[in-house]
Records
---
Amino acid sequence: MEKEFNTFKNVIRLPHKYAAGPTYTKFYNGLKESKILGTRCPSCAVTFVPARSFCPKCMKNLDTWVEVAQEGEVQTWTYAGKDFFGIPGKAPVVIVLVKLDGTEGSFLHLIGGINLESADTVKKALRKGTRVKAVWNEEKKGHMLDIKYFAPLSKKR
Amino acid sequence: MADRVGIVEVAMTPGAESKDNFLDQVFRTSKELLDKAGISRDEVGTVVSASSDVFHGGVSCASSYYWDAGAAFLKNASRQDGESLFAFIYAVMRILSGNYSTAMVLGVCKGSENPANDMLTHFFTDPFYQRQIGLNETVAAALQKREYMTKYRITEEQCAAVVVKNLGNALKNPYAHVKKRVSVEDVLASEMVMEPLRKMECAPKSEGMIAMLLAREDVAVKLTDKPVWFKGYGSSMDHFYLGDRDLLNGQLGTAAAKAYEMAGITNPKKEIHVAEICEPYSFQELLWCEDLGFCDRGKGGKLIESGATGPGGKIPVNPSGGVLAHNPYVTRGLYRLAEGFLQVRGQAGERQLGRKVTTALAHGTHGFAGQCHAVVIIGK
C-alpha cells in the first residue's frame, strides 16, 4: 500500500580522521612488536590497559609504562552468530573481556582457536576463569587486531 | 532550597511511527503543553531541550533546526545532550537561579527515521580501543548479562519475566510502542541477537517528543492545583573503557544515594511508591533495582519472582512498560519522569496504580551497560 505522505531517504557518509596522540601511538607500536603495553598511575598504582595518558581519579599524567602479561582469565563473553554493523571480520565472532594477569581491569578483544559453530560449542570451551593467551597475526598493522584473538590454553599447561 | 520547583504539566507523543514530520511533532507537542497549562508562549521564561541532533536525526546543528517549533523562538534558552534528565535538572536550576519563574523542558527523538540502534551506538565508542573490536550497546549489555547471570545465578526465566511484565504493563499505556501479552516461553523462543541476549530482551527503536512545564512554587500553584514537586537529584558517570569498570557495581548506587539524601529518603523500599526506570535490556531492570536499594545485591531475580515490582506489588517498577516497551533513545529519561509525574497526580489512566502514590522515582541511563545514571525524585 502506498503511503499517504512522502518519505525521503538519505545515506550520510562522513569521513573522519582521528589523532592517536603519543600514548595510543606507543601502544599500537607495542602491538607491532607483539607487546601489550599499559600505563601505571603513580598515585593509585592502577595499571590501565590498553595504555591511557591520564588517571581520571587522581588527575595524574601516566608516563610509567609496563609491558603486561599476554595471558589471563575470561571474565565474560558474548557470541554473535550473524554479521552485525561494525563486526570485526565476519560472523561468527566471540567478543570477550579478559583480565590479563597482574592488571586490575579487563581487556576487550575476541576469542578464537575454538569451535565457533554455535554458542553451545563455545560454552564447552569457555567459562568464567578460563585461561586464555593472545595469538598474534604474522603481519602487523598497528591495530587492535594485530592480536588475532585470545585462545584458551591447553589444559596440560 | 529557597524555593520549590514544581512540574505543572506534561505533553508527549506515542512511540509508534508517526506520519507527521519532525518539526510538526515538536510544534504540536509544545503547543499541547502550553494549551494544557493554559499559558501563552510569551509566558514561558526559558526552554531547555534534550536532543542528539546529528546522530539521532541526521539533521542540522544542535537545536537550530527545531528551536522555533519548540516554543523557544528568540528566547534566552539552551540545549543539553546526553541523558535527557540533565535537561530537566538544568531547567530546575534556571528557575532556582531566580531569573525565571517558568521553564519548559523539551525532549525530541524520532526513532522511526533512524538507522538501527546499534548502528548508532557503535559510533558512541572510541575509534581506537573499542570500535576496532566491534563494540556497541548490545554487545556491552550481553557481556554484562552473562557476568550477572554467572555471578549471582540469575536465570534466563527471571530476565524474561521483566519483558513479560513490562510489555504487559504497556497494554494500558497509550504512549507505549510495543505492547503485548507474552509468556516467558515466547521471550526465550525469540531470536538470539547477541548471546545471551535475545531479541525480545532488547528495547525497540521508538519516537518520543516530550514537553514539560516547570514553575517556581508561587507560580506553580496558580497554574495548577496539582503541582508535583522536585525533591532530589543525583547522577554519576563511570569509566568510558568498558574493561575499566565493574559491570555489576556501577554508578547507579552513587547517583541514587545523592538523590535520596537530597530528598530526605532513608528507606527507599518504603518511601518510593513507584519507580520508572530505564531498562534498555531485560536483566538491567533487575540489576538497577538492586542499585536503587529495592533489594539486596544479587537478589534482583528473586525480587521479580516475588511479584514486588508488578503493578500491585510493594515497589511497582515500570507500570508504564518502561523502555522495553518504548525506547525514544534521546528522551527516555524524561518519559520516565513524565510517567512518575502522572502517577503522583493520579492521572495515569488505566495504568494508575491502586496504591497511594505520593513519591516517585525516575531514572535515566546512557552510555553502555549503565555507564552514566541519573535519578530524580518527585512528589507531593
Note: Residues 28 and 152 of chain A are 24 Å apart (CA to CA).
---
Amino acid sequence: MVKGSQGRKDRSRVKIGFVMSLFAVALVGLWVRTGWVQIRQGSDLLAQASRQSRAAECEYGARGRIFDRNGQMLATSVEAKSVYARPFEVADVDVAADTLSRTLGVARSTVYKRLKSRKKFVWIKRQVTDREALAVSGADLPGVRLVSEFSRIYPNGHLAGQTIGFVNVDGRGLEGVERVYEDRLKPSKAQFVVQRDGKGQRSYIDAQGREMDINGLDVRLTIDTQIQHAAEQALARSVTEYGARSGIVLVVDVDSGDILAMANDPFFNPNNVERSSASQRRLRALTDIYEPGSTMKPFLFAAAIQEGVIKPDTLINCEGGRWRVANKTIRDTHPEKWLPARKVLRYSSNIGSAKIGMDLGAGVYHSYLTKLGFGEKTDIGLPGEASGILMPPNKWTSVDLAAISFGQGIGVTALQLARAFLCLANGGVTKDLHLVSLPDQARRNPAQQVFSPETAATVLSLMKEVVEEDGTGRSARIPGITIAGKTGTAQKAAKTGGGYGDQYLSSFVALVPADRPELLVLTMIDEPQKSNYGSTVAAPVCREVTVRTLAYYGKLSETLQTAEVEDVSGETADAASLAEAVGEAPSRPDTGRVPDIKGMSVRRALEILTKKGIVPVLKGRGMTVKNQKPEAGQPWPDDQRTEGADDVFVLWLS
Amino acid sequence: MSKADKTLLWMILTLLGGALALGLGAVWLNIERMDVAYDLRTMEKSLGQKEDLAVKLTVERNNLASPYQLRKLADRLELGVAAPGQIRRIADTR
C-alpha cells in the first residue's frame, strides 16, 4: 500500500457503483422509452408513418365510345388537361393573371378574380388544348397546376348530332344516346395505395385495385355515317333553297328495320353545345308532331282495300275539285270528276280520299291507324318522344273523318310515319325500328299482320304509279329504278288558333325498289316559303338521298331504261347510255383529234372518253392521268365501241 | 475452451452472420423494389402518353375520313356520286 492512501477510505467501489447505477438508470430509461414508443405509441406512430409514405390514388377510366354500324367513330373521349389554382399558394397574382389570361384566352379580370378568391381550389379553365397545357406548364407559376380529365370529342361534327346527344363538362350524358346509355358508357374508377418518397414521387406497391377494367362500354348505332351525311346534305340544300324552318330525313333499311339516317335541320354540333339553342338540339324526328297530309293516304287505301271497300279501279266522284262536308269545303289541287281509286291516290285527291274514308267508317279506320302504331310512342329508346295525336273514333265528326282521311286532323311524328310505311313495305306486317345495335335491343312489340301481303303489294303498285306514271311524285323518279312514293302538302294549324294558317309541311315518302322495297326514305320540310308542294320541295330530297344511298351500296342501275339487268359484262355494256347519263361534261372542244388528257382527274378523262364511246384501260393507281395512248393530237381510234380489252385507249395514272 | 463451447460459439457466429446477410438482403431487395417501382411508374406514364396520342390520332383519322371531309376532297378531285347510267359492272373474266 502507498503511504498516502492509508488514511483514506477506498471509495472506488462506490464510484464504480455510482457510474454503473447511472448507466443502469440510463439504460432502463432507454428501455422504458423504447417500450413506451413501441408498445404504447407504436400503432399511432405507424399510422403517422404510413400517412407520410403512402397515399390513396384514384384512376378514372375513359367514357365508352359511340360507333356507327360500320365502326366509324361518332363519339370518343380524349384525355385533356384542366388548369386549376390554389389561390393561397399563388405568389404574384398580377403576373399569374397576366400569364394565364394570355395563354388560355380567358379574360384577365376573370382570372384575377378567381386567383384572389379565398377558396382553396378554383378552376381557371377546363379541358384546354395540348398547346395551352404545355404553355401553362412551361410558365411554372406557383400555385397553378394541371390535372388530367377526359373531354368528349365528336369527330364528325354535327353529323347525327341530335341523335348522339352530348355530355356536360363532368362527362355526364345530358341528351340523346349519351343520356340514354349513361350507365353503360360512364367509366368507373379504381382506388389504390401508392408509396411516396421524400420528393413526393409516387410508385405502386402492388396491382391491387388496378386490375379491373374501368373504361365505359361502347355503344353501336344502326346509323350509317355515309347515308346520314347524304341525308343531311340533301336536307340542308332544300331547307336553304326554299327558306324552310326545319326539316327531317329518315332512311330505314326495310329488311332489318334499322334506321340508317335520321337527319334534322337545323343541325347541332355536340362539340359546341354552349353555342347551340334548344331548337337546334331537338331531335325533331321523334319530338315534333305534324299533321302529315297526303302521305297518310296510302294507309287509308290499304285499309279500304283490305276491308273490300274499294278496288284499285273503283270509280269515285271527285266532284270537280270542290265538295262541302258539314259547312266545310274540301278542295283538290287537281280538279277531276270521276276517277278510279288508283288515280285518286296518283293525283292525291282529297275529295276522293274523304269519300273512301267515309265509306270505310271512323271506327274501322281508327283501328287500322292504331295497329300501325299511330297515337303510341315507337319506344325507340331516346328521351322526349311524342305519342302523336289520334282522337278516339267516337269523337270524330264527319269533317274530322274526312280530314283524317287525307292526313289532316291527326298528329304524327316522323318516326311513327316511318314505322307505318315500314309495315306496308314489309308485306303488311309491323316491324320495330332500331337505332341501337349494341347492346342488343329486346323486341319491343310483337309483329302483327295489319294488311294481307296482297293488299300491301296492291298499295305499293298504286304508290309506284304516283312516281312512275303521271302522278304527283314524278320529280322523285330515278331512271332505271322503280320507286313507290307519295307526296304530302299539309296545311299547318295557325299559331293564333282557330283553323289553318298559311304555312305548310311538305313531305315525301319513297319505297325503293317499288316491288320489293329494301329502302324507305321519308322527308319532311317544315314551313317552306318559296314553294310548298311536297313534289317540289321534299321529293327531290328523297330522290337525291336514294341515289346516293344506292350508289353507296353499289345498287344503282347501270342502264337508264331498266333495272332488270343487274350484271352485264364489259363487252355488252352500252356505252351510249353512259355517255348520255354523263351529259354535258365540261370537255374541251371536239376537234376530231384526241385531246390532251394528261394532268386531268380520272373522272374528267373518263367523261371525255365515254362521250366518244371509249372505255379506256386504266394502268397504275391514283386519281390523276399521268400519260395517255394515243397521244394528244392523234386521230381518235377507229373502233370506238371496243372497250378496254384491245388497248384502244390507255391511261396511266399516278 | 471445450469443444462444446466452440461449437456453441460457431453456431452463434453463424446465426449472427446469417442475420446480417438476411438484413442486407432485405435492404437490397427493398432498394431493388423501389427501383422497379420507379421504372414501372415511368413506363406507365410513357404508355399513358402513347395511348393518349393514339386516341388523338384515331380521332384525327376519323375526322379526316368523315363524310364531310371526304366530300371536300372529292370536290377538289372532281369526283362525285355516280348518277344512274354512269355505273359499269365489269364481269371478272380471269
Note: The CA atoms of residues 30 and 587 of chain A lie 105 Å apart.
